[in-house]
Fold this protein.
Amino acid sequence: MHDDEVIEDHDRGLQHDLQVMATRMMQRRRLLGLFAAGGAGALLTACGGGGSSDSSTSSTTTTTTTTTTGTGTTGTGTTGTGTTGTGTTTSACVADPTETNGPYPSDGTNSVNGTISNILTASGIVRSDIRSSFGTASGTASGVPLTLTIKLVNTNSSCAALSGYAIYIWHCDAGGNYSLYSTSILNQNYLRGVQVTDSSGSVTFTTIFPGCYSGRYPHIHFEVFPSLSVATTQRNASLTSQFAMPRDIASAVYAGSSLYSASVNNLAQTTTSSDNVFGDNTAAQIAAQTPTMAGSVSAGFTGTVVVGLAL
């Protein structure tokens, strides 16, 4: 409506003013009636107050629950610490932080003896049991068995499972050496493998518990790719990060197997807080990066961990 179409109320005469006064009296009587019938709550509702969904806001936090049952060491959260027996763990859906791929990734980003090292392009790298070498190599890594299930979720979509993604993991052997890099196992390619997440967003690797070498907290490296077809170089990865081994399980493994003798002293000298990779992470991030494990040195361990991507 244009300004010149506005009619001022005080120019409408006595009759108009009497009608306005009558209307206001009726409104006042109605409000007084409501107040007498329902009290202050009725009056507040009539005026549009209270807990109406139209005038309030809310936020939700999505969590995932992981239940681990076994005869090993379990605990609260994803730290894997606690008492021996059956345990239930609950953890928030946390986006994993990016970590370095380190000096031994064989993911196309560095060289060994002047040649680019990239196991991701080798035939046979897609496998679940990574304890033995493949191709022309024939060695097998000795150590306490570990079966690790990794579940991939989208932290920006109610922790929805991410299927069809490729996950590459690698880690050192019981003596702290990396295949393809360490002189003693330069011609081996074990403890490296790739798998594609299923409809539940999960993959399972059979490997050994990694040793602890000087200067680092015991860990497993991993890279996540949006598909197997692009899992050919770290440059295509959606996430590069690391898992921190549960300290109580690491202590039991290192003390219980002579294969890990050097790891006992190395573990005593480091924690996740002092580690040059995990040291700047929050408690929630460390919890998310630490698999929940159960089992024994003699029978081996099973572990589960949720990896969060913020997509």
